[in-house]
Structures are given as C-alpha cells and as structure tokens.
Amino acid sequence: MKNIKIIEVKSEIGAGTRGASLGIDALKIAALDFMSNFFVNFPSDVVETENNLLYEPVESPYAKRIKGVKTIYERIAKTVEENIKSGLFPLVLSGDHSSAGGTIAGIKMANPKNRLGVVWIDAHADFHSPYTTPSGNMHGMPLAISLAEDNKDCTVHKPNADTIKVWEELKNIGNIKPKILPQDLVYIALRDTEKEEDYILKKLGIKIIPVSEVRKKGVEHVVRQTLLTLQHCDDIYVSFDVDSLDSSISRGTGTPVANGLKEREAEDLLASLMQNHKICCFEITEVNPTLDKENMMAEIAFNILQRCANILLIN
Hints:
Largest sheet: 8 strands, parallel
Structural class: alpha/beta
Shape: globular
CATH superfamily: Ureohydrolase domain
Oligomer: single chain
Helix content: 25-40%
Mean pLDDT: 97
Radius of gyration: 18 Å
C-alpha cells in the first residue's frame, strides 16, 4: 500500500494556449459531480506558480518564460523530493506538461543513485530544445531537459546567451545531468512529432509504442513490453498527458490530436502500470476546461485518476 500525497501545480507558463492552470479545479469539480471524496481523502501540497508572467512581455522567444519555468522546476523538484524521502507517493496534478521536468528532477534528487525509467503517455514527444523549437513553448521541452539533449544537429535558431545560461541551469537542477537515459524512456501513443524530434528519437533509439500496437496487441502486452524495456530501472515515473486520448474525447486540452487512445484503453493501461512496485510517481497534465464542453475532459481524467489511486492504495 502506498501513502499518496497530491501535489498541485497550477502552472501554465509553458503552454501556448491559456487555461491549463484551471485543470486541477476542473478535476475537483468532476470529483464533486461524481460525489467522490477523493480530494478530501488525501493530503495535498500546492506549489506556488509564476502565472503572473503571462501578463509580461516574452524575453526569450525560443524558450518562452524560461526563467519562470526554472523557478517552478526548483519548487516542484523540492516538493517531490521531500515527499518521496518522507515515504509518500507523489500524485502530481499539473497545468501544462513543462512541469514534468521538475517532477523528474525531484524523483532523481530523492534517490540520486537509482536508475529512473519514464513512461511518457502523450501525443507529443516534448523533445525540443531552444535550438529546435517551432513554438518556443516550454511544454515541448521537458524530456530534452531531463535527457540533457540539445539536438544541435537540427539547429534552427540561435538562442541568446541569457536563454542558453538558464537552459543549462534547467538541465542541471539537483546537480544531476542527465536525469534519465535514452534507453530508460518509453513513449506510448506518440503520433504528432516534428522532423527534428524524429531525428533525435531515431538517433537515440528511443522506444515508441504507437496507438495501433495498443489496439492490435492489447493493453497487457504493451504494459509487459514497457516494463521489459525498463527492467533495469529502480524507479519508474508515469506521465499522462490527456492529449494522448483521441481528439474526439480530448477537446479539453491545448493540443488535441486524432487517432489517439480510447478512454478505456488509457484507463486500463494506467491501471495496469500502477500495479508495478517500481512505480514511484504518477502525473496527470494538460486538462484545460476552457476549451471543453460540460467538463468532459476533466471527468475522463478524474475517472482515470481515481482508479489509479485505488490500485496504488491496495498494492
């Protein structure tokens, strides 16, 4: 049985579309609508945000609000580290996916000698750097930060010295760089990448399990494959971006993509992963109720959250 601690990160400075900071409250409303005591049953830590930066001019066009993102990373990393060291299981609810790099840093800081595996369930690779980004949005960069990989072979931009300085600091949070190895990362439901990302993923030989494989071979097979790939890891972190779901049901997120997972597939996939004793942290991200009807995305995400938490409690 795991002692769950909810970590709320209402940050959305890494996203291109506004509204993800409201995702956690949308999940709480979904819980109330389902008459669930979920948010009463578990203690929570609230990480202070830097969302005021959304009203200020962007200093770094190729890494928007990077200084604020660094501040958030440091706060999340400290919170996650402290909770893991206290024997708690961090269940992270975040606004935009950029904050996952802070979560990874915190897990690594808690147990620096442990080898960390990452299961990234997402339509996007989030593997850009300030040298390659098409948008400058930091939620497209957390894995490049965690793997300390600039992908300079595909350089498109020349970031200024100030941006590069903070970028290097981001990669080195906790004085551990890289946080994860390419062979310890598994993507599930990845289907919307840029050519720069395709290049680096292929170069590093990173494992990708497409939606077609989930459908053809089934959830249990995919979970077995994932855990087999990460068998040498001591800890495993699972990051679930709701845009991994098909765009027909994931309207309430900033970047929906067609041909994604069905609700039941995602739920079964995550529930099966949570049964593994190496899972040390779970994150749900990118719920944006401002883009939604009747809070549907948050309700789907909440069902997944509640089922996963129930499994963590009995495992």
